[in-house]
Amino acid sequence: MEFQAVIMAGGRGTRMGCITEGAAKALIPVGQHPLLYYPAKLLEKWGFEEAILIVPSSQSGQFSTAIGQMGLSLKFDIVQINDDDDLGTAEALRIVAPKIKRDVLVLSGDLISDIALQVFADKHRRQNAAATILMAEESLAFADMDDTKLKGNQGAELIVALDKDDNDRVCVFVDEGDVEGGDLPMSRRMLENHPQLMFCKDLYDGHLYLLKKWVVDYVAANPTLKSLQCDLLPKLISSQFKRRSPKAEAASSGYATPSLHSSLDESEPRGLMASSLPPTDIRRFVPQDHWFDSCKAGASIPGTREAEELYGCYAYIMEAGHCVRANTMQLYAEICRTFSHSKLSSLACENIPNVHPSVSKKEKSQACSESVIDAKCTIGERCSIKKSTISKHCTIGDRVRITNSIIMDHVTIKDGCTLHNTIVCSNAYINEQCSLTNCQVGEKCTVNAKTHSKNEELNNDSHEF
Questions:
Q1: Number of H helices, E strands in the chain
Q2: Most buried residue, 12, 29, 250, 306, by CB count within 10 Å?
Q3: CB 3 within 8 A of CB 107
């Protein structure tokens, strides 16, 4: 395989509320599969045979069990990270860097997308990019979702500047919160080489990146880099406009002119004049042949704009399909609400009924086609289930009404309950005649009979028995 793959599933899910108290974020259910299934299936669909999977050490057993139940041919090399270290994505990539021997596709374990990876990789090859970033307009990423619920819960708002005449070359990539006093610093060299930029504040970072091997080496050598999005990419994108070496700065033409027949001995420093650079200067890591290949192809002539730049970083903008991350409780709930069973089946590349064949459901109970009821569930008499997900091994009593809700594994809901816009975590027990609206019920929580709650987070500590 030309590329390796790394799935980032080591996050603690701190923005997921009670949902991740007893389970890894990447293993919470979306439809009839854990969240991890969707990025893993994406890799398998496009020919990947194995992937490095980064997981929290305390939940490695859960991941091993889930992987065994997913039925994928994709093989996982599971790498555990310490839960207490609270590592960022760049730090996690640094841990697995010794395993990476070639260009690598890095994707988040909470990504749901039907991107054509072959087309994405073709752009990376064609541009000889140091990094290619999956992005989508927010109108696509959050299609059909309730904007009022998502406001302020989409993560960092990015300011991105693209050179549309240069195949969506990324020239600016910063978090809006890092812009002091409303001033956006931009280098003169960048503005001279890319005078016509399109600035965007409505692009959504899909957290799927194709990186050159030398970029991974740079991450491995720079412990100050914590996050791929917040640290590596801004540094990588701003540094692409640097001159190649201090000696080139002093040259009359401004640039060193290498011979195409120069030795590419790997024992020598890989950047031009690299010996005069600090150990963590990014120019030390850009291979000589990264530039030479461009010269051979006629794309760069020393002294032209292309030759003046170290490398290029590009965006791949999705214009159709799905590209969204379940990285907050609000987004997760909206994904479960808006992604119909047929849509999830298409993403999972399978055709299975929305009600699993093993479900025991009384004849007079109804579940709409947009709901999902997973294996080994029992549904009592005269129940109504609309636009909801009910995970494995749940027991639903008689005359229960569930709307726009998510019920996780091994939940019991007794007779006469009504749930609306509510998330119920695994092993919870809801007694008779309860009415819950816009609530979150914690793992193993027991809700007293005839409880009527709105806009509350319920757990055993919040109840007196």
A1: 14, 32
A2: 29
A3: no
Cα gap 263→158, rounded to integer Å: 41
Q: Could you tell me where the beta strands, DSSP code E, fall in 179-252? A: 198-200, 203-211
- Phi then psi dihedrals of residue 174, to 5 deg: -140, 150
16 within 8 A of 40, measured Cβ to Cβ? no
Determine the length of the chain: 465
Structure-token pair, residue 399: 């005359």
Predicted confidence at residue 343, as pLDDT, reads 80
Q: Which two tokens stand for residue 376?
A: 């080994």
> Of 401, 409, 351, 394, which is closest to residue 29 (Cα–Cα)?
409
Q: What CA–CA distance (Å, rounded) separates 289 from 18?
A: 50
**Contacts of residue 65, Cβ cutoff 8 Å, sequence gap at least 6:** none
d(CA 59, CA 357): 30
- Rounded mean pLDDT of 203-219? 97
- Separation between Cα atoms, residue 106 and residue 299, nearest integer Å: 28
Mean pLDDT of 323-341: 87
- Cβ neighbours of 292 (radius 10 Å): 17
Q: Which of 59-68, 271-280, 329-338 bottoms out in mean pLDDT, i.e. has the lowest?
A: 271-280
CA-derived radius of gyration, the chain? 25
pLDDT at 98: 98
Using the CB atoms, write b or e for 325-354: b if 16+ within 10 Å. bbbbbbbbbbbbbbbbbebbbebbeeeeeb
* pLDDT surpassing 80 at residue 281: yes
SS3 81: strand
Of residues 442 and 340, more confidently modeled: 442
First-to-last alpha carbon distance for the chain, in angstroms, is: 58
Three-state DSSP class for 228?
Answer: helix
Non-local (6+) Cβ contacts of 452 within 8 A are 434, 435
User: 248 pLDDT exceeds 70?
Assistant: no
Check residue 155 and give its pLDDT: 53
Is 112 exposed, middle or buried (CB count within 10 Å of its CB: 0-12, 13-18, 19+)?
buried
323-325 and 111-113 as β-strands: parallel, antiparallel, unpaired?
A: antiparallel
Crossing angle between the packed helical segments 89-96 and 213-221, to the nearest 10 degrees: 100
pLDDT at 266: 36
Neighbours of 185 (CB within 10 A): 9
The single residue listed with the structure tokens 């108290």 is 21
What type of residue is 399? R
pTM of the model: 0.87
SS3 345: helix
- When mean pLDDT is compared across 46-60, 105-119, 267-281, 397-411, the lowest value belongs to 267-281
